[in-house]
Backbone:
């Protein structure tokens, strides 16, 4: 029997069962026509978005960098400066064809249009592989309040073609095309960022640490009955080396300006990709490049999707500040950690802003 709103609301346990265990996700919950947000999603006041942060006066914006002349030293400087100051920037003329971006956005919608029982096949409990996971919120077992987001997460170490044979058919080719066609710009960005740290050659071991594994997430944020009480994604920094984020035209991603501590909107720019430094690169660069806190608000009038590619070390890699950086004599801020341990720590708790990186503090 299809559940009714009153059945769902009657017991707090039913919400979790419906959303997490039965695989309906928050999309299924939103489609029941809820008028009020279930209590499990109510965030503490300090984690809700204060709309006064988004007033006209807050005119800060992250840089938008044109990559068409990427080997121009001015472009390289702009990229390294943005990674040092903001940890975030947008790129245009990046070489990933517009149709590839449109196709992966459409495929994301198509995946979420599948019946719940179809998506549930990819849940942690049922998926035939750890590398394909459909889930909701961030770490529902560890969070005090849930987040208003569903995701499909596709992971691979090096060989994407092999991994992709297990990805859902409805989005497989489109996700694959997006991963493959973004690879040249990822390599260019990493080469520029490494040069900015006096690393002039990326050998095999560095290549593994910088981009030995990837995770592509298809995120879905359904329309929310009380967006002011919850979040799409709570304050966090990514644990990746770099993240390449494709967003649709709805908006709602905010980045912390680490000087003013204000939240700055990342406006959708047609055809652009949002790039951000993750914790792994903050650690390798000994804090010279910043992995900055960001969050996504919930939206009361529109569904939203985004498709981040997290470019990571391999799980077994040991990461720490690069020798080339420490040679200048700066104090070592981070110790060496096994990347898998770092990621397990990240997933073992709810989103807690910049606290994850404490795990690697020297
Ligand atoms: C979901 O909302 C998110 C996600 C993010 C992600 C931001 C990133 O930067 S992702 C990049 C992370 N890096 C990697 O994935 C590369 C390294 N990966 C690994 O080392 C492994 O895949 C692993 C993460 C350590 C998982 O190892 P495995 O041996 O396969 O063990 P599992 O039992 O599958 O998982 C262990 C533990 O982690 C949780 N978890 C695993 N994968 C995910 C995932 N894709 N999404 C959410 N949670 C995941 C899982 O809950 C397991 O804990 P249990 O207690 O449940 O057993 C940013 C913001 C977001 O809102
Ligand atoms: O949806 C977005 O714009 C950002 C999502 C995000 O920060 C993440 O998945 O790590
Ligand atoms: Fe993120």
Residues:
């Amino acid at each position: 029997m299809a559940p009714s709103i009153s059945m769902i609301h009657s017991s707090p346990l039913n919400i979790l069962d419906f959303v997490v265990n039965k695989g309906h996700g928050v999309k299924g919950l939103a489609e029941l026509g809820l008028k009020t947000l279930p209590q499990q999603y109510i965030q503490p006041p300090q984690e809700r978005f204060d709309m006064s942060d988004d007033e006209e006066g807050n005119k800060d914006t992250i840089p938008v960098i044109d990559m068409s002349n990427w080997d121009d030293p001015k472009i390289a400087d702009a990229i390294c400066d943005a990674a040092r100051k903001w940890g975030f920037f947008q790129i245009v003329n990046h070489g990933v064809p517009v149709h590839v971006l449109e196709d992966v956005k459409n495929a994301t919608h198509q995946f979420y249009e599948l019946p719940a029982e179809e998506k549930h096949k990819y849940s942690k409990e049922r998926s035939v592989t750890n590398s394909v996971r459909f889930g909701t919120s961030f770490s529902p077992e560890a969070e005090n309040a849930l987040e208003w987001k569903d995701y499909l997460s596709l992971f691979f170490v090096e060989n994407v073609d092999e991994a992709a044979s297990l990805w859902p058919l409805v989005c497989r080719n489109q996700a694959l095309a997006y991963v493959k066609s973004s690879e040249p710009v990822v390599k260019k960005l990493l080469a520029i960022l490494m040069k900015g740290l006096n690393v002039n050659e990326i050998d095999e071991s560095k290549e593994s640490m910088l981009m030995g594994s990837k995770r592509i997430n298809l995120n879905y944020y359904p329309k929310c009955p009380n967006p002011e009480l919850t979040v799409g994604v709570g304050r966090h920094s990514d644990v990746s080396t770099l993240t390449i984020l494709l967003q649709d035209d709805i908006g709602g991603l905010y980045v912390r300006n680490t000087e003013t501590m204000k939240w700055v909107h990342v406006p959708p720019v047609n055809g652009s990709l949002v790039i951000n430094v993750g914790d792994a690169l903050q650690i390798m660069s000994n804090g010279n490049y910043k992995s900055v806190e960001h969050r996504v608000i919930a939206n009361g009038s529109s569904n939203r999707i985004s498709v981040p590619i997290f470019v990571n070390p391999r799980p077994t890699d040991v990461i720490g500040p690069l020798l080339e950086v420490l040679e200048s004599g700066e104090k070592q801020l981070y110790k060496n950690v096994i990347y898998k341990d770092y990621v397990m720590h990240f997933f073992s708790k709810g989103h807690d802003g910049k606290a994850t990186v404490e795990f690697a503090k020297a």
Q: What stands out?
A: The pocket of 2-oxoglutaric acid (ligand 2) is lined by residues 217, 219, 233, 238, 245, 247, 253, 294, 296, 306, 308 (CB under 6 Å).
